[in-house]
Design brief:
This protein has 267 residues and is mostly helical. Helix content is 61%, strand content 1%. It has 14 helices and two strands, in the order ααααααααβααβαααα. The chain has a two-stranded antiparallel sheet. It is globular, with a radius of gyration of 20 Å. The termini are far apart. The N terminus is likely disordered.
Length: 267
C-alpha cells in the first residue's frame, strides 16, 4: 500500500492536470471550435477512433438545439394537459392496433426481456409517433453542442463520447438525424444509452436504431438492464415504475407512459 502523502500529492497533480486539459464550456458559438479541438483529445483518450473524431471536427454549433433546451414547456403541464397535448388517445388506439397486428413480435420481446408490449408501444408512440417523425437535427452536432453548453455539460458529455463511438462502429454517421437533444431512432435513445444497450435483434450484424426490430429490442433491453422485474406492475408506486423513471426524468412523462401502457395492454 502506498504511503498517504505521495498518494495525496499524486491525486492533487492529477486533478490539476485534468483541469488544465478539460475543454471549457461556453454559452454561445464563440469558442466552439477551440472547445472541439480540446474535446477531441479527451475523446481520443477515451477510445474514440478516426471516424468519430472526424465527425466531431465537422460538428456545427446547433443553435436550434440550444433554443429547444431553453424552452421545454410541455413538461411543466399537468398530467391531463400533457396527455392531451401529446395525443394520448391516438397513441393508445394505434398501440392496440400495432400490438394486435404483430403479436408474435411483441410476445417474443416480452418473453426475452420481461417488458410488456404496452410499455414499449407507449414509449414508441410518445417519442416518435411510432416512427412517423424521428427528428431533423444532426445527432452529432446536437449532442456535441449540448456538451459544450455550460448548462448541463456533465450530463451530456458521456452521450457525446457515445455518439462518436457509434460513428466509429457504423451505427450512425455524422449526418444521421435525430431529435433536438441528440436522441436517435424510433424510441429516441440518447447516444450513450444507445451505445451501452443497443441490440442487433434482426441479426444483420449492425445495431440500427432506425430499424424497428433493433430499436424496440434495444428499448426492452435498456429497461431490463435498469432493473425491470418481469410480471410486476409498472404504475406509480409499483416496482417497475422506478425503471420507467430512468427512461425520462420528467414526472409527467413517466406517469403518462405508465397510464397509456396499461390501456394498450388492457386493450
Amino acid at each position: 500500500m502506498r504511503p498517504l502523502q505521495p498518494l495525496t500529492m499524486a491525486l492533487g497533480f492529477g486533478l490539476l492536470a485534468t483541469s488544465a486539459l478539460a475543454a471549457p464550456c461556453g454559452n454561445s458559438a464563440d469558442g466552439f471550435s477551440n472547445w472541439k479541438a480540446a474535446f477531441a483529445k479527451e475523446a481520443a483518450a477515451e477510445g474514440v477512433g478516426p471516424r468519430g473524431l472526424e465527425a466531431l471536427a465537422g460538428a456545427q454549433y446547433a443553435s436550434s438545439t440550444i433554443a429547444a433546451d431553453r424552452n421545454q414547456k410541455s413538461f411543466k403541464y399537468s398530467l391531463e394537459k400533457f396527455m392531451q397535448v401529446r395525443g394520448a388517445p391516438t397513441i393508445v388506439a394505434q398501440g392496440r392496433k400495432r400490438r394486435a397486428q404483430d403479436a408474435a413480435f411483441y410476445d417474443a420481446l416480452e418473453r426475452q426481456y420481461g417488458v410488456p408490449a404496452g410499455v414499449l408501444l407507449a414509449i414508441h408512440g410518445m417519442e416518435t409517433g411510432f416512427g412517423g417523425f424521428m427528428g431533423d437535427s444532426a445527432v452529432v452536432s446536437a449532442i456535441v453542442t449540448l456538451t459544450y453548453d455550460c448548462r448541463r455539460s456533465d450530463f451530456f458529455r458521456p452521450h457525446a463520447v457515445g455518439a462518436l463511438k457509434l460513428v466509429d462502429r457504423g451505427a450512425i454517421t455524422a449526418q444521421t438525424k435525430g431529435a433536438k437533444h441528440g436522441e436517435l431512432g424510433h424510441t429516441q435513445f440518447l447516444p450513450g444509452n444507445a451505445l451501452n444497450y443497443g441490440v442487433d435483434a434482426n441479426g444483420d450484424g449492425r445495431v440500427d436504431f432506425y430499424n424497428l426490430t433493433d430499436a424496440l429490442a434495444s428499448t426492452a433491453n435498456f429497461l431490463r438492464q435498469k432493473g425491470w422485474q418481469p410480471g410486476q406492475g409498472y404504475q406509480e408506486g409499483q416496482p417497475n415504475f422506478a425503471v420507467i423513471q430512468q427512461w425520462n426524468a420528467a414526472g409527467v412523462y413517466q406517469k403518462a407512459i405508465a397510464l397509456m401502457a396499461a390501456q394498450i395492454d388492457g386493450g
